[in-house]
Amino acid sequence: MSKVRVNCFSISLDGYGAGPKQSLENPLGERGPELHNWFFPTRTVQKKVFSQEGGETGVDNDMAERSFENVGAWILGRNMFGPVRGDWPDESWKGWWGDVPPYGCDVFVLTHYPRKSFALAGTTFHFITDGPLAAMEKAKASAKDKDVRIGGGASTIRQYLQAGLIDEMHLAVSPVILGKGEPLLQGIDLSALGFNSVKLFAGEAASHFWLSR
Amino acid sequence: MSKVRVNCFSISLDGYGAGPKQSLENPLGERGPELHNWFFPTRTVQKKVFSQEGGETGVDNDMAERSFENVGAWILGRNMFGPVRGDWPDESWKGWWGDVPPYGCDVFVLTHYPRKSFALAGTTFHFITDGPLAAMEKAKASAKDKDVRIGGGASTIRQYLQAGLIDEMHLAVSPVILGKGEPLLQGIDLSALGFNSVKLFAGEAASHFWLSR
Q1: Bigger pLDDT: A50 or A143?
Q2: Which of A70, A149, B45, B139 has the fewest other C-beta atoms within 10 Å?
Q3: What residue ranges do the domains of chain B occupy?
């Protein structure tokens, strides 16, 4: 059955999904990139995101690998698509990923500013201005019997959690403390939302927790 | 050099050190005991806390074992000593641990209600009514060149963290979500408090994070 999933979302030990002071130069916030130290070196990410050979294998890589399986559509918050804020000045920004985005399907980007869809090496980006529920409807229609993956960031995941729309969530707790930043779970009662199973997988450089309802 | 340590303090994935609705029947709060599912079955705890042979060995047990090493004195919040609230009705409550407490040294219990010290099988419990700083002073004097261990609970640890008095902290993140309860780190900026190193040890049933400054 088709699911709505979060995968490989990294948080610090103190619960932050991004560091403080997010900016154009620091899209993940101060020290935010450290959250992903387990993720970027994996063979899966080296290949899918950076088009490079090599990279780490092991549990962390298995987690990254699984995260791309059976995904039929993605939803991203705007900051995960790019650093541009406000109106799109032009159509030149095509995402963080260079010529070959790692998606290979429809990607729905939440934004308040309209922009035309465009296709790039098997991925089509759509810009959704009528809210997260509309984006979900479109993503589900596009994914058909595959899953919808919500890429992030933290505030996007929080919105879908609070709307009760996420079926499965894989969080990677990194051995990092940020002190402040963008909290993922604070004030969200996951038990009340029906999450009642948590499985732990020990990665080499992070701890992986799989939550389901 | 003598340190002030927290060890084996269990939190849920969503950051709670105890469940909601703590009570006499439920001293750890609703579902709070699940936080310690990695801890109680270990050989170390079976022996030290329950005076039983057997129990699990492995990384979780190593963590439990290390937690008791080189400890010269303990500080406990009152609820970790017992369920009694308000004035001590009598001296009959001697702790959760039966005839042989697992400490074997001085234990300083924070309380607002005076009670006479008493000794039990190598452990002496002292009841400190003049606050956490006074308790720390006494614990350090008693521990001499060994470490002071703060047993918990969450609010006791938070007080000592905020006072900048904790040098090292080992948190065990359990594959449990509580939804609500007593948060350990919320609103505490561990980076500003000087914690800059986090090491991860993968246990069988929990993830162990060692923080130091």
Answers
A1: A143
A2: A70
A3: 4-84+97-212
> Mutate which of A9, A13, A185 to disrupt the B interface (most B C-beta within 10 Å)?
A13
Amino acid occupying residue A151:
G
> Using omega within 30 degrees of 0 as the cis cutoff, is the peptide bond preceding A32 cis?
no
Second-level CATH architecture of B4-84+97-212: 3-Layer(aba) Sandwich (3.40)
Of B177, B188, B209, Cβ closest to residue A191:
B177
Mean of the per-residue pLDDT values of chain A = 96
For residue B34, the chain A residues in CB contact (below 8 A) are none
Inter-chain Cβ pairs, chain A and chain B, closer than 8 A: 77
- Which residue is listed with tokens 């009528």? A130
| Assembly ipTM | 0.93
Answer yes or no: is pLDDT of B20 > 90: yes
Provide the 3-class DSSP secondary structure of residue B161.
Answer: helix
The residue of chain B with its CA nearest to that of A190 is B179
Q: Which two tokens stand for residue A99?
A: 């010529």
Chain A residue with minimal CA distance to B172? Answer: A13
Residue type, A68: F
